[in-house]
Amino acid sequence: xxxxxxxxxxxxxxxxxxxxxxxxxxxxxxxxxxxxxxxxxxxxxxxxxxxxxxxxxxxxxxxxxxxxxxxxxxxxxxxxxxxxxxxxxxxxxxxxxxxxxxxxxxxxxxxxxxxxxxxxxxxxxxxxxxxxxxxxxxxxxxxxxxxxxxxxxxxxxxxxxxxxxxxxxxxxxxxxxxxxxxxxxxxxxxxxxxxxxxxxxxxxxxxxxxxxxxxxxxxxxxxxxxxxxxxxxxxxxxxxxxxxxxxxxxx
Length: 251
What we know:
Elements: H1 2-108, H2 111-114, H3 121-127, H4 131-142, H5 146-172, H6 178-209, H7 213-243
Helix pairs in contact: 1-7, 4-5, 5-6, 5-7, 6-7
């Protein structure tokens, strides 16, 4: 009987151990499965994050590329617009200068109209067809730049200065009284003495009227030439009253 109880006790212990072992094995299996599932999920999540990051990075790079292309395109367009605007401005300025050059040349070709009248109609009619005015008109037609026009006008400024000297010399050799000759000589000397200052005054006055250098230079040169022409005309008119004629030194 005691042996039977012992057997039953041992059997019960074995059953309990087997049950406990089975429970532990099952728990470890579930835990391992859970751990494996967790690792798998973590790996999948990591892979998903990497893919997401790559997509985001790719999208950002794409946006940056698009932004760069857009910026370059805009810069090229702005550069093109600036170039076009500069070109149009240059063409407009060139057109204005060309028109002004033509106007300057046209005005300079008519010196007798811009010069003062002496009040002596017979003399004025004869003087307006003088050789220097005709020669100036021909030379100005050939001057196609502001520099050429300025040089031409400067040339005739000197020629008219020479004519004033020639007229004064003829008056000093004329039948006028000594007192009249002295008065004419004194007037001539004063005019010559003040000429350079007057010339600077004319240039300064024209410069204050115009912003464009080429315009004021040509206009000033024309006015200085007319200033010399007017004084020579004034002296030749005195000679015309004495002899009824006059002759320029210019041939």
